[in-house]
């Protein structure tokens, strides 16, 4: 009997550790650089604040860059590596930008603490600061650090959801990354800021599913407005705000959820969130909640823990665009 009890308790401890490992943020922790680069957060914020004051577009650009880097092969800055077949060259990443800001921040970090702070942590900290600045200081979250940089970057391994995918297929991709349905809806709240381009919505405006008609899910008044901005035969590919609430199109806030509830989502996936049985109640709650900013921060932290590399599986790059390891594939 004694053997049995000790076996059972060992099993319980083992299972508890297993589940801790499953839900913990791997090697990540707050204050990872306390000894090695104590001013890391101040250095990053100094550069980011200055850059944002002359270019507020950096906020949506970086939020998207963080999502694309983390979602494909983990948060390891593999998206920053230059190369003829690197992740940057994959279709969905061609319009991703923001690398120049990471270079500037990284140079400032190298000047203070050489070879210490990873590019992956630089992306996480810069994104956190830009979310904060673009919310008027209302959305500041703590983000654990300790990510190492990946040594591999291949366009062929980029795995991102497309705007025409169903909610359930999109969720399968989030689930694989240990993100819940609510996390997915919160993270898509990233579309509270930034733009898309006419080419992504022409089908919704003119020929939805080959019907020669607009997407019936989109508010007909919005269809009219957007048709003016995206004429059928124009070769231009104009920018369209993802958050159609004009006063807050450039602000991180919860207005995206109100917009998609009013059928004013821009991408098909945005509108679907508000109508699909799986997600509509979550959207409804977020549209009237006052804790979106806190919960968005928590979801960003969770996204930032996916596929993190450690000192054995990654490295600390000095230039974020090229890796040091001889076996690097980029
Ligand atoms: C889940 C499925 C998602 C799909 C299908 C999707 C798709 C897209 C597309 C097509 C664009 C416009 C690209 C362009 O016109 O160049 C875009 C922009 C953007 N996405 Fe997403 N996205 C998704 C999730 C997310 C998430 C989770 C975040 C944030 C964590 C995010 C943040 C952004 C931002 C900030 C922009 C604006 C970028 C800019 O202004 O340059 N997206 N997304």
UniProtKB/TrEMBL annotation:
The record marks 64 as: Transition state stabilizer. Disulfide bonds join 37-113, 70-75, 119-320, 198-230. CDD domains: secretory_peroxidase. It is found in: Secreted. Residues 1-26 form the signal peptide. Ca(2+) 2 binds at residues 192, 243, 253. It comes from the Eukaryota. Binds 1 heme b (iron(II)-protoporphyrin IX) group per subunit. Binds 2 calcium ions per subunit. Its EC number is 1.11.1.7. Its cofactor is heme b; Ca(2+). The active site is at residue 68. It catalyses: 2 a phenolic donor + H2O2 = 2 a phenolic radical donor + 2 H2O. Residues 27-324 form the Plant heme peroxidase family profile domain. One of its GO terms (molecular function) is metal ion binding. One of its GO terms (cellular component) is extracellular region. Removal of H(2)O(2), oxidation of toxic reductants, biosynthesis and degradation of lignin, suberization, auxin catabolism, response to environmental stresses such as wounding, pathogen attack and oxidative stress. These functions might be dependent on each isozyme/isoform in each plant tissue. Belongs to the peroxidase family. Classical plant (class III) peroxidase subfamily. This is Peroxidase. It comes from Raphanus sativus. The gene is LOC108837033.
